[in-house]
Amino acid sequence: MDTVEPLEPLVTAYDGLVCDLDGVVYRGADAVPGAAEALQELVARGVRVVYATNNASRVPADVAAQIADAGAPATASDVVSSAQAGAARLAQKLEPGSAVLALGGEGAVEALRDAGLVPVDPSVDTHGLEAVRAVLQGYGKQLRVSDFETAARLLTTGLPWVATNDDATLPLPWGQSPGNGAYVDLLASALRRRPHVVGKPHPPLYRLALERLGTPAARTLAVGDRLATDIAGAEAAGIDSAWVLTGVDRPSDLVAGGARPTYVLGSLDDLLRPYAVSDRDGDTWRCGTARVTPTHDGLRIAQGSAGVIEVVRAGLAALLAMRDDPAGSPGGREKSVAAGAEALDRLLDDV
Ligand SMILES: [Mg+2]
After folding, report:
1. pLDDT for 121-149, tens place per residue?
2. How far is the CA of 246 from the centre of ligand 1 (A)?
3. How far is the CA of 228 from the centre of ligand 1 (A)?
């Protein structure tokens, strides 16, 4: 069977894009090379783009400014935050103008206000807490132990509790710091209850992004670098996903986890090119002119004139088939899959 190469750029199948930020558009303070140009081109072609972020501490205008600094087109209304998804959830449950404890940063305060609710600061006096009808919890650098105590006191009475996201860690230049999920666990362990969580990988943030885009789910693509949040979240929300290899996760993370992205991209630029799908030919997996054959200790790779990303696609298809093959011998299979994935990791690191 010949591989049929599509001629249209991948993005032609979509009207809207829900784009992740860190690891896709920028990495910390640095722009991801080529990402801004690709986004400009996508917008010029009429694709609608919103940026969905689990970061609830910053206000959308600040996030948009950082995107614009990286050279990509963005205004505040193009940013959909987990704080906004949390506030929207509470606005559905509460009367307009209800008081909500804002256990978080400026992003949570602004989102509540924009949703027609009244944010209450945890440092308010006991009298001020009486009107509070719910708690919105998001990451806030200035939060104090006494703020968590105030939240616990309210939540112990059974008030609705929404958390913006449950990321266990917050990546900082020096390593991993506790993320909002760690602070959620802190309260949850005392209260023996858990909040409703709206950020990725839970569907509400993506649903809000779809609403903002106004594009049908079937014509909308989620793009992100993290399998357990961006890609799993898209799956939960019922939209296609593109996993971009400019961020943290590597092929070995894909074979070790359960997420299945619709597409695997080297960079955002690949959205503007036809997408070569991998297929099987006997023991060999093909993608474009790349040929990858599983062996007992990994993968035999013939790159031909193909790019690294085609090798990675063919390799991942081979490894996932091997991993999920019930006929294979489990012990040896796991080892060869891990060795093959590490070979793909190294291939990407050498680019
Ligand atoms: Mg990311």
Report:
1. 999 999 999 999 999 999 999 999 999 99
2. 9
3. 10
